[in-house]
Design brief:
Number of domains: 2
Helix content: 55-70%
Distance between the termini: 26 Å
Mean pLDDT: 78
Radius of gyration: 22 Å
Number of strands: 2
Shape: elongated
Largest sheet: 2 strands, antiparallel
Number of helices: 5
Strand content: 5-15%
Structural class: mainly alpha
Length: about 130
């Protein structure tokens, strides 16, 4: 096997990692980026700050760092809980590459591996992933 994580069929397993990204992870990454941007602004303001402002910046930076650590812990927890192992990804990869020729039972097995539940109404369809 080559270094590009291909399953025997030549498809790149990594391209499916984007498909199995959790929506919760995207929200956490956005929160992390926002917190880090706020910390960066505080650091930029340090050079022109007096003692009172430095005290405020230090307090705010500590608060933001606590939030940042909480988000990182949540991201780590989410990753640990929702990781599909490489073998499953390769197996799914093989099925996805030949999806049109799969039997209904094989398609159902792939969906059972990826999907926890589907909620459908007249207005929307919501898919809850297993990861």
């Amino acid at each position: 096997m080559s270094n590009d994580d291909t399953g025997g069929n030549g498809s790149n397993v990594n391209r499916y990692n984007a498909i199995i990204e959790s929506p919760q992870k995207a929200v956490l990454q956005s929160q992390l980026a926002q917190i880090e941007a706020e910390i960066s602004k505080l650091v930029d303001n340090l050079a022109a700050a007096d003692n009172v402002l430095i005290s405020f910046i230090n307090r705010k930076a500590r608060e933001l760092d606590v939030k940042r650590q909480e988000v990182l812990k949540e991201m780590a927890k989410l990753s640990a809980e929702n990781t599909l192992d490489t073998d499953k990804i390769r197996q799914i990869n093989g099925y996805v590459d030949k999806w049109d020729s799969l039997s209904l039972e094989d398609k159902r097995l792939v969906c059972d591996t990826l999907i926890d539940v589907i909620h459908a109404s007249n207005e929307k369809i919501q898919i809850m992933w297993k990861f």
